[in-house]
Amino acid sequence: MSQKETGASRPSEDGDASSVRHAQFGPPSRRFRLQTLVRLRWLAVAGQTLTVLAVAFLLQFPLPLLQAGVLIAALAVANIMLSLWFPPTQRLGPKAALALLSFDLLQMAALLFITGGLANPFAPLICVPVIISFASQPLRHSIVLILLALVCTTALAFSPYPLPWYPEETLRLQPVMQLGIWFAIASMMSFAAFYAYQVSNEATLLADALAATELVLEREKHLSQLDGLAAAAAHELGTPLATISVVAKEMEREFGEDERLREDVQLLRSQSERCRDILKRLTSLSAASEEHMRRLPLSSMVEEVVAPHRQFGIEIDLVQNGDRASEPVCTRNAGILYGLGNLVENAVDYAKSRVTVTTEHSPERVVVVVEDDGAGYSADILSRIGEPYMTRRAKEMERAGGLGLGLFIAKTLLERSGARLRFENRSGAAAGARIRIEWPRAMLEDG
């Protein structure tokens, strides 16, 4: 176990991975609605219009009013056309978003170019389309936009138009000041874009991972409810099967001497009896599991978790510290069973020969410790453990159908049950990894 990773997942997780993919998590989920961009553009139209009018009529600075009005009108007309041609729920693909944001960038750059270039105090607004792109679009398309923005910023430094100012004064920036403003805008654009991309990407990954967690938990709950469905089916089908059995007996007495019908009637009766036996077993199974399996001692719960992993050549030892008579009786929780099972499977996958599961309890807390004799966690994995999609075997997981979410899902489900998890390497001569899961006893017993 040279490194522990999120990739260790239970076999049932492949189906969940498929469901997650069908839900279009990942890059497609970063598309935003056209209506969102249209509203932002109307805000830009309003802001640009008010600014131009204030400078021209309130401050009475000389301003190329006609050219500025044409540029603002172009943005408004483009907005109207988009609203008419496409429905409000239209979602933009990366190329369409890049085209629209590039138009916004060029329109803003042209408006700044005719109003003083880098000397215009509103010049940093050229960063806005870039930040929107990095927060919502794939990285390669956003890089194209930031390069275009840097070209436009450079062009602003060579603007021949003076800054609208008092008629008797001409305000021009020295080249060194223009260079400083260029670097300031470029630095702000790069930093803000990187920050927006990181925050958006982490939020998307977290949202997708939590959605996958919900799918896994719902699947576990669905499996735990099958016994109730079986009881309902047995109850509903019992009456018609009893009727069929009675009619089959009457037919057997009536046509018992008829060679053409006797075998068919006997087959009908035997199959109806077989169906009744099956339904009886389903009914007894549901009744047996409904009560005494709903709550179970801690040792029984841990044994249930460990049992499926004993057949892989790794010895699993169960160690119980504490009085068996006073151990907590837990409410069956699909999230706890799945989470502990995932951690045990992860330990079995990377152990050399032995996995030890230790339980201890007191009146205040319950602790389960999972240890293996592998190589332990590597330093970089240990510092980021529990993050969604954090895996060192991404290509292998992709071929296997997994998403690299196993450890994240287990950690999330256990924390929802009130547990606190600590991941560490064993110290001393015994190498390996250790996971400590601790619950407040009252919370575990109350489910």
From TrEMBL:
NCBIfam families: ActS_PrrB_HisK (NF033792)
PROSITE patterns recorded: HIS_KIN
Protein name according to UniProt: histidine kinase
Entry keyword set: ATP-binding, Cell membrane, Kinase, Membrane, Nucleotide-binding, Phosphoprotein, Transferase, Transmembrane, Transmembrane helix
Region: Disordered, residue numbers: 1-24
Alphabetized GO MF terms: protein histidine kinase activity
Main location: membrane
Annotated membrane topology: Multi-pass membrane protein
PANTHER family on file: SENSOR PROTEIN CREC, SENSOR PROTEIN RSTB
Lineage: Bacteria, Pseudomonadati, Pseudomonadota, Alphaproteobacteria, Hyphomicrobiales
The UniProt record lists the keyword Transmembrane helix: yes
